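Hi support team,

I submitted a single chain yesterday and got back a structure, but I'm not sure I'm reading the C-alpha cell output correctly. Could someone confirm the output below corresponds to the sequence I sent? I've pasted both exactly as they appear in my results page.

Thanks,
R.
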Amino acid sequence: MDFSKVIQQATPLLLDGLKVTIVISVSAILIGMLIGLLTCLMGMSKSKILKGIAAVYVWIIRGTPMIVQAFLVFFAMPQVIQLADPSFRINAFQAGLITLSLNAGAYLSEIFRGGIQAVPKGQSEAARSLGMTQGKTLIKVVLPQAFKFSIPALVNQFIITVKDSSILSVIGLAEVVNKAKTYVGTTYQFFATYILVAVYYLVVISILMIISKYVEKKFSYDKQS
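Hi R., thanks for writing in. Yes, this is the structure output for that exact sequence:
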C-alpha cells in the first residue's frame, strides 16, 4: 500500500469524478426542489386525482431502493420508449440525473409540506382578508416562509443526495466511486484508493454540514428576533 503513489496517480482521476458528483448532485437537488414543490402542492390540493398521483409517486420512490430506480430509468425506460421511437438513447449522466431528481423530489415534497404546515394559518387568513387571492397568498405569504422553515432540512437532503450519487456508479456514471473502481481495477490499490475517496466525501459533506449548522443558527436567531 503506497499512499503517496496512489495520491499522485489517482488524484486527477478522482477529482474529475468528484466534479461529476457535485454537478449531478446540485442539478438533482434543484430539479428535485421543483418536483418536490409541485408534488407537495398536488398532495395538498382539493383534487383527489392530483392527491392520488402525488401519493403514488411518493409511495413508489420511498418504497423502492434507488439502485432499482436507476436500473429502471437506464435500462427499462429506454426499452419501452424505443417501442415508439427506435432511435431513443439515454446516457448514464441523463439517467442518473433523472433518478436522483425523482428520488430527491419525493423526499423534498414531504419537507415542503412540513414547512407549509409550519406557517401559522392566521397569516393566510389575514392575507385573504386584505383581498389577496388564494394563489397570491400562497406565493407571496406562505411559500417564502415555508421555504425559510425548510432550509435546514433542504441542506440535509442535499447531503443525502451527494452520498446517494455514489449508487449511480452501477449504471456507469463517471462519478468519484466509478473512477475509483477504474483505478483499482488496474492497480489493485484497494485500501489507499477507497480511503482517499472517503476523505473526498468527508470534505464535501463536512462543508455542507458547516453550512447547515450556520443556516440553523441564523434561522433560530431570526425566529427569536
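A quick pointer for reading it: The chain has a mean pLDDT of 90. Let us know if anything else looks off.

Best,
Support desk
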